[in-house]
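Q: Structure tokens for this one, please.
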Amino acid sequence: MPLPSKNRTLQILNAAAAGKYGVLAAIAYNIEQLTAIVRAAESKRSPLIIQLFPSTLKQLPTLAHAAAAAVKSATVPISLHIDHAQDEAHIREIMQSLPVDSIMVDMSHYDQAENLEKTRVLAKECHERGIAVEAESGRINGGEDGIADTGDLEALFTAPSDVEEFIAADIDILAPSIGNVHGDYGPAGPAEGQLHFDRLEAIDKQIDNRVLIALHGTNDFPPEVLQRCIRSGAIKLNVNKLILEVWNVFLRENAAKMGLVSLIEEGMKVLQVETERWMDICGSSGKA
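A: Here is the predicted structure, written as tokens:
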């Protein structure tokens, strides 16, 4: 069932696909980070996708409503996405009770057949409420704060048959496995040859505009790697540590010597500047 054209996440990503630039889908764990990334979007006149983990929804129940208020009041295109939703009951609770634009229905911890069936059923329910759906084909190794660690499960590259099966499950956004991992690569970023750009390009060609591509596992990426992924077809760029590490470092280095109000305000400025830098890198600045 096609989603209405007013879905904010899909509007943002379709515009990016047409303009051949990427859009940050930025994780926020608290109101300060949320504020900083929205300020960056306004300052850079850039579209933005705000991402919250299901664990954050439980830890800070009002944060989704604050994010929704930011989406509504923004003067640039912003949407609210729930990343790596892995519990079916919680997904149904989210779609019924929260003002979200899109959900990643992450059933990748099941075998392929069960993953597809659960994704198909949940996608139908989301679409009935105007919510766009992302899913992960193959399996991306690793874990990070807020999502289950799949380190004990075998990583699976996305194959052409996976692409067709997930499109048939009526998803809107596909997150392929091309050698990317959840978690850290190390200071130098992905090893030479770790990311299979040829596979990403082939997936993009096969998709042929039927769905959009999300890129997971961007920790430690150098700018040129992210830009190559965009050129290879990735539009939705999930970022966590890539932008948040400057916030973490600032707090660690200054918490003992600054008052709380100043620490928060200066920390938000640091994060805003870093988010703006990556908006420039992915080409979304000035596109709103």
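A few notes: Residues 137 and 143 are 16 Å apart (CA to CA). The radius of gyration is 18 Å.
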